[in-house]
Specification:
Layout: H1 2-21, H2 28-33, H3 36-68, H4 74-83, H5 87-97, H6 100-110, H7 116-134, H8 138-168, H9 176-230
Keywords: Cell membrane, Membrane, Protein transport, Transmembrane, Transmembrane helix, Transport
Family: Belongs to the exbB/tolQ family.
Membrane topology: Multi-pass membrane protein
């Protein structure tokens, strides 16, 4: 009896060894297409969101970098022109630089001669417009970072519903090939949604940091300009 048991174990191990020798591979394309129509539609939607997030990120990144470039000697030249009464020269210099800082200073120059509070208000109003321009479409990244995982979880729910439906129609016999389509939909959409959400979240926070640096630069130069106007002659 013991000998027969050992023989059965050995035969089973041989079958297992033979089974392990057969390695099944699954490419990304096959993984996506195995999820059925619902899975492919959700993956396609997530791919479109990923393209949108990538485009917004790089478009805003280049725009913010361009906005942050300003000559270190810019404010010194502005103060020299204002001190010497060359208001037109100061305006021309601001027009040549063409940056958020130069536009704020230009707005302040146009108010020279009025009370300092009015100049400060004009600069602040112009600053709000500049910040709005810098943050253009950045909120879309925040939306994508939150919506993508939810779309992925929607695919998970759909996949599980399909798997349970197939299981109910299987007559009580559990077969993995019957459940495979629904499980593929559930897993692939979840992973895809999380990937898109993480990418969009990182991109959003990076742009926020870059924008804050430009805003700080605008505030610092505006205060320097106002302090210069407030200096006694």
């Amino acid at each position: 009896m013991i000998n027969s048991f050992i023989q059965e174990v050995q035969e089973g191990s041989e079958v297992l060894t033979d089974g392990e020798s057969v390695e099944k591979t699954l490419s990304i394309i096959e993984l996506i297409t195995s999820g059925g129509t619902a899975g492919m539609l959700i993956i396609l939607l997530l791919f479109v969101l990923l393209i949108m997030a990538t485009y917004i990120y790089f478009e805003r990144l280049f725009a913010i970098k361009a906005a942050s470039k300003i000559d270190n000697n810019f404010m010194n030249q502005i103060k020299d022109h204002v001190s010497n009464g060359k208001i037109d020269s100061a305006q021309m210099l601001c027009a040549q630089v063409n940056s958020p800082v130069s536009r704020l200073i230009s707005k302040g120059i146009t108010r020279i001669g009025k009370p300092l509070e009015d100049i400060n208000t004009a600069i602040e109003n112009a600053g709000r417009l500049e910040i709005y321009g810098l943050e253009k479409n950045v909120s879309m990244l925040a939306t994508i970072s939150g919506a993508a995982p939810m779309i992925g979880f929607l695919g998970t729910v759909i996949g599980m519903i399909l798997a349970i439906f197939e299981l109910a129609n299987a007559g009580g016999t559990i077969q993995m090939d019957v459940l495979a389509s629904g499980l593929y939909t559930a897993m692939t959409t979840t992973v895809a949604g999380l990937i898109v959400g993480i990418v969009a979240y990182i991109a959003y926070n990076h742009l926020v940091v870059k924008t804050n640096k430009v805003v700080y630069q605008m505030e610092a130069n505006s205060l320097e300009f106002l302090d210069h106007l407030n200096e006694p002659i």
